[in-house]
Design a protein that fits this description.
This protein is an alpha/beta fold.
């Protein structure tokens, strides 16, 4: 932003304040804040919020993800750039489907802002695959509200509820790509996260239980009943969690493989065959919470 021919965002004072607050990329952040601000007063308010520790994405109202800028509201998990590898693999798998086959059914579970599902569907449409359906679900009402801002303009639907209970029963046995960016930080390690994550992102989006894999196990266990034959579940985990995560996928009857061992992405594929029958009430049964 330029006021009277001077860029306030690039001023040494703004950059110095951001750097003193621990912002490693202070120059870049100052430029982004300046672009977003419409007045000196708004710029000052945005800088103050960032200096106070609010994540840059919450200050701006969006996150950079897969070349898009999905809306991210305060109190919603910020999509990480490392998760772009998960979306890229999901797109590769979806694009392997024969041209002319029914459109891919994509579900973004534990969706937060819905950024993963939006990025995947946008990629598929750019590749000439506009058919299909996008669904997203989250247990946090703030995330559901935010995800609707991103998902509904693409014609997708966002559902509220705990994991698979959020989804319409009609999706059972029909999901081709299931993205599940579940939390995988062990409970005792939450205190080691950066302050902006601990203070401003929901605990439910960070805490994966004693070993960090509670939610991953629940998703893996429920996934076969919801995946179409040959459908894929994609999740992330930490480097030291790979063996246990693979075991969770294989124990659920999925064919597991690991990509990128530095920032692991796991793919669990359901073999061809008859989908598991839903439990009475129209939904596959889920394991009990630990």
């Amino acid at each position: 932003m330029r006021i009277g021919g001077v860029s306030l965002a690039a001023s040494p004072e703004v950059v110095a304040r951001l750097r003193a607050a621990g912002c490693v990329f202070a120059d870049e952040e100052a430029a982004l804040l300046g672009e977003a601000a419409t007045s000196p007063a708004q710029l000052e308010a945005m800088v103050a919020r960032r200096v106070d520790g609010l994540p840059l994405e919450h200050v701006l109202g969006w996150a950079e993800f897969c070349g898009l800028r999905p809306a991210v509201e305060p109190g919603v998990f910020v999509p990480r750039r490392r998760t772009e590898a998960l979306v890229e693999e999901a797109a590769r798998l979806a694009l392997r489907r024969p041209v002319g086959a029914r459109g891919a059914v994509v579900v973004d579970l534990c969706c937060g802002s819905g950024a993963l599902g939006v990025a995947l569907v946008t990629t598929l449409r750019a590749a000439g695959r506009p058919e299909g359906a996008l669904h997203a679900g989250d247990v946090d009402p703030v995330a559901v509200r935010c995800a609707r801002r991103n998902v509904e303009p693409l014609g997708g639907q966002v559902h509220s509820g705990d994991l698979f209970t959020s989804l319409p029963p009609s999706l059972a046995g029909r999901i081709d790509v299931l993205l599940a960016n579940v939390p995988y930080v062990p409970t005792e390690a939450i205190a080691l996260l950066p302050p902006e994550a601990r203070r401003h992102e929901p605990r439910t989006a960070l805490d994966g239980g004693a070993d960090g894999l509670d939610l991953l196990r629940r998703v893996a266990s429920g996934a076969p009943a919801w995946l179409a034959p040959g459908g894929h579940l994609l999740v992330e985990c930490g480097q030291g969690q790979v063996p246990a995560a693979v075991q969770a996928l294989t124990a659920a009857g999925l064919q597991a493989r690991v990509l990128n061992t530095q920032s692991p992405v796991l793919v669990g594929t359901r073999a061809g065959g008859t989908p598991s029958l839903p439990s009475p009430g129209g939904r596959p049964s889920l394991p009990s919470l630990p």
